[in-house]
Design a protein that fits this description.
By secondary structure, the chain is an alpha/beta fold. It is built from 19 helices and 16 strands. The strands form four sheets. The protein has a five-stranded parallel beta sheet, with helices on both faces. Strand 10 and strand 11 form a beta hairpin. Helix 7 packs antiparallel against helix 9 and helix 10 runs parallel beside helix 19. The longest helix is centred in the C-terminal third of the chain and has 20 residues. 47% of the residues are buried. This is Glutamate synthase [NADPH] small chain. Its EC number is 1.4.1.13. Keywords: 4Fe-4S, Amino-acid biosynthesis, Glutamate biosynthesis, Iron, Iron-sulfur, Metal-binding, NADP, Oxidoreductase. Its cofactor is [4Fe-4S] cluster.
Length: 487
């Protein structure tokens, strides 16, 4: 145990953010560089090393949280990094992007603010990178087996790294022009600077993983050809089919899916454009969807100089605190969350449904018409007399995803079966109905969190390794049927 009285002596402190007026003028990460290290040992000391550490169960990776909290408290950063990497390939990603279900399951959180697990995690890995402690792990011998991984998001990268380290020759295929999937083009720079992805890719290259960008399986390479070329295939293509909003006026210009809008801002930071082809500059922006992707659109619009930003959510405003009956500890509660993007301004409207869009004579969207909704007999129903309109010259749809891509032919060409939710079906080893073809991440689970994606990639890698060699020592943190700790 780090400090038996740590949780009594120290309150919760989190990473400090830069002033709003400063950070909206650039695309750097919102946090004050170096602000965690002076406080992180005290924060780690708040961990009680519980007899039953529920944080392990809150995290699908099974992170050894009390152990690396103890090492961080003692400032043994080498040991802390080793325990962190024992269960997580990419802690610098999760430490920045994960909503931290581990903290919701923290035992201290029953009656106090929980341990800042996420901040401790990112401090350990940043310290490890600075000290040169993250080295390539080259396999001692090669198996002679080859694996293709389709998709380079967190699930695909985790599976590729695990399989490479097991001695297999792995090639990652990515249809975009750069490796990273949604980490690269879905996550804004102000949430995670892409240098973190770049150095992991270099580590993986040094270990032996090969990367092929600008190649879409199903179009550029047929599934049958890929299957002939490799001994096994891992599909980690994500759930990229966006949920649409079929209301009158949807065809107007200026209405985009979030994943049409966000990648262009990231491409500006990569140097591909001087200004984004779709920009919020000087426009009244409406973001439809109250989740993390919606918040990413809000923060991006602020940095592009939007005249106003309004975020709509069809569900009622969540509670500020956990409901003891409906969302009891240690489940992951749905709470009112103020992200760094929300701190920067804009309006949030809850319990509102879009009825239609209105445009000008040139077919550009100008107004969004909405109405308040309420639950009646368990169904969301429009409240009479609540209709109104708000200015909307740029609208982004951030309402989630409905499944993996069916347009490029990948599913049909492989002959894959889907489950009742439209995801690619798989067995206990993450293998599809096609022998030698496996699936990991959102393509098999549906839209989920980054920690679930990495956990799936690690577990699928074990299934592939066992398929290729007859046995495997690789860890498998989750089963494909496991679900988040929620009610």
């Amino acid at each position: 145990m780090a400090d038996p009285k740590g949780f009594l002596n120290h309150g919760r402190e989190v990473a400090k953010t830069r002033p709003v007026g400063e950070r909206v003028k650039d695309w750097n990460e919102v946090y004050v560089p170096g602000s965690l290290l002076p406080i992180i040992s005290k924060q780690a000391s708040r961990c009680m090393d519980c007899g039953i550490p529920f944080c392990h169960n809150g995290c699908p990776l099974g992170n050894l949280i009390p152990e690396w909290n103890d090492y961080a408290y003692r400032e043994d950063w080498t040991a802390a990094s080793e325990r962190l990497h024992a269960t997580n390939n990419f802690p610098e990603f999760t430490g920045r992007l994960c909503p931290a279900p581990c903290e919701s399951a923290c035992v201290l959180g029953i009656n106090q603010p929980p341990v800042t697990i996420k901040n401790v995690e990112v401090s350990i890995i940043d310290k490890a990178w600075e000290a040169g402690g993250v080295a390539p792990q080259v396999p001692e011998r090669l198996s002679g087996k080859t694996v293709a991984v389709i998709g380079s998001g967190p699930a695909g990268l985790a599976a590729a790294q695990q399989l490479t380290r097991a001695g297999h020759t792995v090639a990652v295929y990515e249809r975009a022009d750069r490796i990273g999937g949604l980490l690269r083009y879905g996550i804004p720079e102000f949430k995670m600077e892409k240098r973190h992805i770049n150095r992991r890719i270099e580590q993986m290259r040094a270990e032996g993983t090969r990367f092929r960008t600008g190649v879409e399986i199903g179009r550029d390479i047929k599934a049958a050809d890929l299957k002939k070329r490799y001994d096994a295939v891992v599909i980690a293509a994500g759930a990229t089919t966006a949920r649409d909003l079929p209301v009158p006026g949807r065809e107007l210009k200026g209405i985009y899916q979030a994943m049409e809008y966000l990648p262009l801002a990231n491409k500006v930071q990569e140097g591909d454009y001087v200004t984004a082809p779709i920009s919020a500059e000087g426009k009244h922006v409406v973001v439809i969807g109250g989740g993390d992707t919606g918040a990413d659109c809000v923060g991006t619009a602020h940095r592009q100089g939007a005249a106003s930003v309004t975020q709509l959510e069809i569900m009622p405003r969540p509670n500020d605190e956990r409901h003891p009956t409906n969302q009891p500890w240690p489940t992951f509660p749905i709470l009112y969350k103020v992200t760094s993007a929300h701190e920067e301004g804009g309006e949030r409207i809850y319990a509102a449904s879009t009825t239609h869009f209105e445009g000008d004579e040139d077919g550009n969207v100008q107004w969004l018409h909405l109405a308040e909704v309420e639950f009646v007999d368990g169904k969301l129903t429009q409240k009479p007399g609540t209709e109104r309109k708000i200015p909307a010259q740029l609208v982004t749809l951030a309402m989630g995803f409905t499944g993996t891509d069916r347009v490029n032919g990948l599913v049909e060409q492989f002959g894959l079966e889907l489950d009742e939710r439209g995801n690619i079906a798989r067995d206990a080893d993450f293998q599809t109905n096609v022998p030698g073809v496996f699936v990991a991440g959102d393509a098999g689970r549906g839209q989920s969190l980054i920690v679930w994606a990495i956990a799936e990639g690690r577990s699928a890698a074990r299934g592939v390794d066992r398929h290729l060699t007859g046995a495997s020592d690789l860890p498998a943190p989750i089963r494909p049927t496991d679900r988040a700790l929620m009610v």
